[in-house]
Amino acid sequence: MNKNRMEALTDGIIAIAATIMVLEIHAPDSFTFESLRDQVPAMIAYLISFLLVMLSWYSYHLMFLHVKRVDLRVYLANTIWLLVLTGIPFATSWVGRFSNNWQPELTYLLITALWAIMYTVTSHALERANPELKKSVNQESVMGIIFRYTMLVGSLILLPFWPPIGLFSTLVLMIISLMFNFRDEKRAHKNHSI
Amino acid sequence: MNKNRMEALTDGIIAIAATIMVLEIHAPDSFTFESLRDQVPAMIAYLISFLLVMLSWYSYHLMFLHVKRVDLRVYLANTIWLLVLTGIPFATSWVGRFSNNWQPELTYLLITALWAIMYTVTSHALERANPELKKSVNQESVMGIIFRYTMLVGSLILLPFWPPIGLFSTLVLMIISLMFNFRDEKRAHKNHSI
Amino acid sequence: MNKNRMEALTDGIIAIAATIMVLEIHAPDSFTFESLRDQVPAMIAYLISFLLVMLSWYSYHLMFLHVKRVDLRVYLANTIWLLVLTGIPFATSWVGRFSNNWQPELTYLLITALWAIMYTVTSHALERANPELKKSVNQESVMGIIFRYTMLVGSLILLPFWPPIGLFSTLVLMIISLMFNFRDEKRAHKNHSI
Amino acid sequence: MNKNRMEALTDGIIAIAATIMVLEIHAPDSFTFESLRDQVPAMIAYLISFLLVMLSWYSYHLMFLHVKRVDLRVYLANTIWLLVLTGIPFATSWVGRFSNNWQPELTYLLITALWAIMYTVTSHALERANPELKKSVNQESVMGIIFRYTMLVGSLILLPFWPPIGLFSTLVLMIISLMFNFRDEKRAHKNHSI
Lengths: 194, 194, 194, 194
What we know:
Four copies of one chain form a homotetramer.
Chain A: H1 3-20, H2 40-65, H3 72-85, H4 87-97, H5 102-129, H6 142-158, H7 165-190
Helix pairs in contact in A: 1-3, 2-4, 2-7, 3-5, 4-5, 5-7, 6-7
């Protein structure tokens, strides 16, 4: 299939999913700053989700960078990855309204975890379609995966005691993942491989 | 005309149509999981419609893959195909709210059937504009077409007795169509034609 | 400037403007077909506006097809063309709700007329930026322009007596314009110029 | 990373952010022109914001035009630039409803100022990633920067006395910036550098 068109369709859906979340933050019915106060949790949830989508896109697009062949299996994995992504605006809106309740926070955690799983599934489909690639297309290390799931399990345990751990652990995971991305880029730059 | 720009505009509209459907699934006014229960039919309708749009796009983009020339007739057929597509969010929203009534289910069935018809119309316009193509651009076999319309007529007959057949038969048709796509890709891969 | 990026941004805005209009057609609060009846004028207005945007895009993209240089003047004209375009969803929504009143119909007529004027302004900016082009980039003939403005003036006169003339004359103009486009394409095909 | 995909994702988000603002201008519940009157401030705010986004895009895309390498630092700066951009629809909607109050006008001013700051941050990241570039990628002169911040401070001082200065100074700044862009393009054209 046409890799470029698949990438363009994917980027279109990502751009929309990242942007429509902001529609949930309505202008208040009054001109005072006090009227903004109710929107602060929704703004924080939007901020985290927007950065999550954009930073995940960065890793995701890197996977496709050196790959030549995409097939129906890759397209299907990519489609389900996108389907889970379109659940993030819903989860963000819900958690933004009830950030102190464990049900929306749990939903948010599970959707972002499912999204990470679909990321791995897509990377396997990509490797299968491109057997000539020497190293894995998915840069995530075993250490990274262990860390990610330890954080998830830890957050699930803490959730009943402090519900905002859902959003908070997503933010922490994102910052750590960003630091690893910077390190990987520096290494790749030294090896002239990018 | 410029094939690339037509494809990019088409992909933009598809990305938006596939994604705005999720806006219909509002975060509930309460934090409980019970409050999500009312949204379940809407979520199922969204899931089916999103996959329908994405999998139809796959076949649709294959049609254009080896084609060199697009003309006004192709563009017009593509435009009406897109127009019918933009009816899917409406039908999905309606069927998601009243999934046990035959009127929304019938509307959903008819819009998706009309969409399939416009697909065939576009394939004929493409063949007409590219007479040098040896084989048909539309991969759908006679068997596939007979099956599709048998399913449609069968669903229409069952509709008064079990309205959800509308969404359900769309899902079944999609899964079967996906299996055929996998088979076609495997064959094409053997023949080195992709 | 980068012509490809300008075209991509333009196509993105057109795709969104054409598609968000359908968000105005909400699923009714009941499952009966009777409840759809109130939406019929909105659906007709959407149908006409969607086709208007898509067919105008066809002519518009042809203007840019053989052009090499776009400058700030072209970009500015294109931006105002897009700004007027984003008024069409508003006018469509208003005329769809009050199709028997001259005020929304007049607004619709004026916005689409202003859009046609910005089309001509953009074509002049394109010719100015590309003086080496032998023939005009704007294919619209003098006959076509006279016809367009005669229709507009005629519709304005008839508006107080039969308000739906606003939408109706847009549809007629679109069909005639489409016929001319088919004729032009046939001619160009004979001359091997496309 | 892939510069083209980053640009395409960026343009997608810009196209959506510029267009969804118009969704805030609802068709009135009556057919009279009087009913439009309440929407006039929202329309003016939309007009200014749409032009601001489109004209900022022009300068922004110029920065990337001759640049070869984008890295994670550039991507991160670009992402935060986009994040601030998605705050403009919110600020536009609020200032459009309460254009005579200093709180929404101040918010509007601060978000657009923050956007300009992120523009500069992105330009520094671009220069860092492309040390071989002889001249600065950011065309903004020292004069321009002094002027911009003088206008901002002046507007902040005048804000309590005449709140609409927020929107008004944005418009003035935009027109002046446009004039400078025209001058720069003319100069570059003479030097054959574009």
